[in-house]
Amino acid sequence: MASGNGLAALGVEGATAAAQALSLPAEAYGNDPQLEVMWAMKAYNHAEIYFNLISSVDPSHLKLTKVDDMIYNSFRVSFADLNIKNLDPDMLKSSEAKEKWRPFCNQFDGVVEDFNYGTLLRLDCEKDYTEENTIFATRIQFFAIEIARNREGFNTPVFQAKTPPS
User: Fold this and answer.
1) Rounded-to-integer distance, Cα 24 and Cα 46, Å
2) What's the CATH code of the domain at 144?
3) Does 21 map to a domain?
4) Strand pairing partners for 135?
5) Is there a domain that residue 116 lies in?
6) What are the start-end ranges of the H helices in 57-124?
7) CB 3.0 to 4.6 Å from 108: which of 36, 65, 86, 112, for a disulfide?
8) Domain span at residue 57?
């Protein structure tokens, strides 16, 4: 993932202020452009950390939450035929898709912290986060899809590409 200044550009005080601001409930804000930038930076930071993780550790051994089994089983019951290797944005964002995703996501309210926070998700799991390969999704959608990708071997090529042959 291409590194930019990210949170480092804010400095310690700015990053601390951003973290405090992001912990407040959404109702405390209007459409503040600075807040949107902070959310984007937080989502980018999360994406960068995750991509570095699956590039460094065999993804089939990763545990992303305390309830990975529950998330994976529910996801595959609800979305048995979803192509997780190459996601179609309409399968996440269309009106029909949103109606199907809503009950899936809401079952994790109180189970997965910040289950409905915005997160970046790669469309093609064999590629890095880029503008063309990234979609905005909820955290539980990210967890569901990435847990499935890890368990079903779809993220393994990312790890293999970064691992020197032995």
Assistant:
1) 19
2) 1.10.3560.10
3) yes
4) 121
5) yes
6) 68-78, 90-93, 95-106
7) 112
8) 6-162
Residue 85 lies in a domain: yes
Give a yes or no: residue 1 inside a domain: no
Burial per residue of 93-128, b for 16 or more beta-carbon CB atoms within 10 angstroms, e otherwise: eeeebeeebeebbebbeeebeebebbbbbbbebeeb
SS3 of 1-54: the string is: CCCCCHHHHHHHHHHHHHHHHHCCCHHHCCCCHHHHHHHHHHHHHHHHHHHHHH
> For each of the chain's 166 residues, which pLDDT tens digit applies?
544 444 455 555 655 555 555 555 555 555 667 777 777 788 888 899 999 999 999 999 999 999 999 999 999 999 999 999 999 999 999 999 999 999 999 999 999 998 998 899 999 999 999 989 999 999 999 999 999 999 999 999 999 988 777 6
Contact 126, 138 (CB under 8 A): no
The two structure tokens encoding residue 8: 């480092």
Task: Write the Ramachandran bin of 44: left for phi over 0, alpha for psi from -120 to 50, otherwise beta.
Answer: alpha
How far is 50 from 3, CA to CA, in rounded Å?
13
